[in-house]
Amino acid sequence: MHNQLFSNHASFGRGDMNRWPVSKKVEVFLLKCDVHKEETLNMFCDEHSKLCCANCAFLNHRHA
Fold this sequence. Notes:
alpha+beta; two-stranded antiparallel ribbon; 28% helix; 9% strand; extended; Znf_B-box; zinc
């Protein structure tokens, strides 16, 4: 759907973040945890299909 709506601009995936047309401030904002503002999103929870910081992973995304 994205390619149909925005056919006139180039899209870059996470692997090409250095080519994203956003400012460094926006990039930093997108990589920060919503709950723990000082933490960076650096983990992925397969069970919840969510990016999370180490604190969230430990507190909310452990397998029982």
